[in-house]
Every structure is written in C-alpha cells, then in structure tokens.
Amino acid sequence: MSEERARIYVCGPYSPMIHERNYCIGEAEENVRRAIRIGNELIEKGHFVFVPHLGHYQANAPNGRHDWPWYEIDNSFIEHWATALFYITSSKGSDAELHLAERLGLKIYIHLDEVPNITPARPHMHCVGCDQ
User: How many CB atoms are located within 10 Å of the residue 3 CB?
Assistant: First the structure.
C-alpha cells in the first residue's frame, strides 16, 4: 500500500521576539525564509503544502494590510484543508496552531525525516518566461 500525499500546514514563528524596528524586519524575513525552505522540502517529498508565512508578502504589498484577520485566515486552512501539520518551533501563534491541529486529530510532524517521501513521477513542465 502506498502512502497518500498529505496536505501539510507549515507552522512556525512569524512575529519577531524583539520589537526594535531594524531587528524586527530581519527576524520576520528569516522566519519566512525558514518556513519556505521547510515547505519546499515537504513538496520535494511529494506532499501538498500551505506556508502561512507567505502572507508576509500579501500584508506588505501596496494594497495589503497588517490588520487583516491573519490568525482566522490561517486557522481556516488547518480546520478545512490540512491533513497534517509541520511544527517548526514554539511561539504564541504556532503553539495555538499546534493545539488546534491536535484537537482536530491531524498528524503532527516536528522533524523532516518523520515525513514520508512519496515523491510522484513529475512530467517536465515548461514554465512561462523560462528559456527552456
């Protein structure tokens, strides 16, 4: 029996621990990069991934807003889409998301080597704007 592709919500800190402006921006960016890197590893293993940290780019877009209900938006993916959650590390928000996922009975991963590798064969895809 082969493993099924999971829909994995990537859960980890976004907001900086220190709220000094220059440090704040750098730490938020680093948290986003770390979540993206883990999300990409999970995709390479053959799973579907939602990285809520990408909302950083929505909030910072010219028509974006930081006061949108981000926790509500993110929790809707845990409640209605995810079959698993990848927990990066503790923060107020990520701990709340972890508890929600546990309450819903989702599979929880905390190490990449725990996530099964079920990479399906991928056809060659031509990307728009690529020279290949």
Answer: 12
Residues in a beta bridge with 31: none
115 burial type by CB count under 10 A (0-12 exposed, 13-18 middle, 19+ buried): buried
Q: What is the DSSP letter of 50?
A: E
Considering Cα of 36, then 39, then 44, then 49, what sign does the dihedral take?
negative
Q: What CATH number is given to the structural domain containing 101? A: 3.40.50.10400
Instruction: Give the whole-angstrom CA distance, residue 92 versus residue 97.
Output: 9
Residue 123 lies in a domain: no
Would you give per-residue pLDDT tens digits along the chain (132 residues)?
Answer: 357 999 999 999 987 665 555 556 677 889 999 999 999 999 999 999 999 999 888 888 899 888 888 899 999 999 999 999 999 999 999 999 999 999 999 999 999 999 999 976 565 566 666 654
Q: Flag whether 119 is in a domain.
A: no
